[in-house]
Protein: 3-oxoacyl-[acyl-carrier-protein] synthase 3 protein 1
Amino acid sequence: MKIKIIGIGSYIPNKEVSNTDFGDHVFLNEDGTPFGYPNEVVIKKFKGITGIENRRYAEDHHTSSDLAFFAAERALENAKIDRETLDYIIFAHNFGDVKSGTHQTDILPSLATRVKNKLNIKNPKCVAYDILFGCPGWIEGVLQANAFIKSGMAKRVLVIGAETLSRVVDDHDRDSMIYSDGAGASILEASDDEAGLLSYESATFANEEANYLYFGKSYNPDLDPDIKYIKMYGRKIYEFALSQVPCAMKSCLDKSGIAIDEVKKILIHQANEKMDEAIIARFYKLYDKTPPENVMPMCIHDLGNSSVATVPTLYDLLIQGKLENHEINKGDVVIFASVGAGMNINAFVYRY
Structure:
């Protein structure tokens, strides 16, 4: 028995923020000193490395659980099922609901409970809970759903990834340009045909790598040091991802028994275009091959890094035929992979 994604949906906020919108920001070094060059240079370098030109921010009156609800409704519509038949709602996020203009996270009650309430699901045996697993949270939720369904604990599971990272960034940190908001949701159930999840891999590296992403004070020394923002050691994350993610993907693919030449698409967490390209190149190099053209769809250029929402959003766009020069057909093999805070890595091989 395998599990299959029978419904997919995403919510991409309408508020578009371009790179030029950061032209007036006062970017500072970690020690609070100003850069020795203008923002135009900062933005040009940023675009060259990450590939990001635009990103989406949530409307002021929306929170992460709102975005998740919108995506979940679309996934339910896509699956064409009765929502009362859901056994679990697994919600992956990192910062809870952060209202616009505030800095306090709110996870009481859990965001999964809030989504269940918004969906108006009456069944008390539909269990709702949150997971914190960094950017790979949605994939980890899928792996948990796989375990629940295979063990007989569930028949249908709703897995959501949603985040509003725009509300936890330091405006004086150039890395703030990477982050965005969004939500993706999927519904999974048992599959008796050839489609479904074939193999998976998951790992946490928590020695030297544990604090590569962390909560820290603003680079502006005049701001309250007790208010924290998302921070990262970008170079360390880049090196870690390049050394570990391709190996995890290979282990996952080898477990599936699928040949590398059968892989049609790789849906990888969208955080940095050059990093993703390097990961894919190293993955194929492990098989003494080069990546085929169009194997890796990208949406980072216009959507930025929405953390747990990036992979399910990418899959939804692929399924809908909204990614130029990319399509997926029945029987195609897809690798889903992610890396993020923890430091966590995971992947699964899936036959569409």
